Amino acid sequence: MDNTPQTETRLAHERLDAYTVAIEFIEVAHLVSQRLPRTKGQIGDQLTRASEGIVLRIAEGAGAEWRSADQKRYFRSARGSAMECAAVLDICRTRGVGSPEQLQHGRQLLIRLVQMLTRLAKAG
């Protein structure tokens, strides 16, 4: 039996830096959304759904690599969800919800995500 360590096999989306950043953003979004109304249609629910949508669309886009039109659509959709999250963080800032550090960190992650998703959508 070969005991050589093997590199863990990763799915296509797990190899994307955008996916890693999106997962990191979900952690921030979760902390902030806990302080917001979370019933259906409320701002906390929107933040949760949009942040999860980023991750899901990135995974779908990475899985659609054989069809670049689909890939572009998924990455553009993820970018739209990131923009929605940025707007929610602005609302949180104006309402005094979440720490300034959390909101700033979330904003920085979203800026990176939007930049990466823009490039992915153009390259797809």
Largest sheet: none
Question: By helix and strand content, what is the structural category?
Answer: mainly alpha
- Number-wise, the strands total 0
Strand proportion, as a percent range, falls in: under 5%
What percent of the residues sit in helical stretches (DSSP H or I)? over 70%
| Average pLDDT rating | 88
Alpha-carbon distance between the two ends: 41 Å
Shape: elongated
What is the assigned CATH homologous superfamily? 23S rRNA-intervening sequence
Domain count: the total is: 1
Would you identify the CATH architecture?
Up-down Bundle
In CATH, what is the class? Mainly Alpha
Taking pLDDT < 50 over at least 5 consecutive residues as the criterion, the unreliable ranges are 1-6
Number of helices: 4
> What's the CATH topology label?
de novo design (two linked rop proteins)
Radius of gyration: 16 Å
| N-to-C SSE string, H for helix and E for strand | HHHH
Summarize the SSE layout with pairings.
Blueprint: H1 17-33, H2 43-63, H3 68-95, H4 100-123
Which features would summarize this protein structure in a list?
single chain, 124 residues, mainly alpha, de novo design (two linked rop proteins), 4 helices, 73% helix
Q: Overview of this structure, please?
A:
- It is a single chain.
- This protein has 124 residues and is mainly α.
- The protein has one domain: 23S rRNA-intervening sequence (de novo design (two linked rop proteins), Up-down Bundle).
- It has helices at residues 17-33, 43-63, 68-95, 100-123.
- 31% of the residues are buried.
- Residues 1-6 have low confidence and may be disordered.
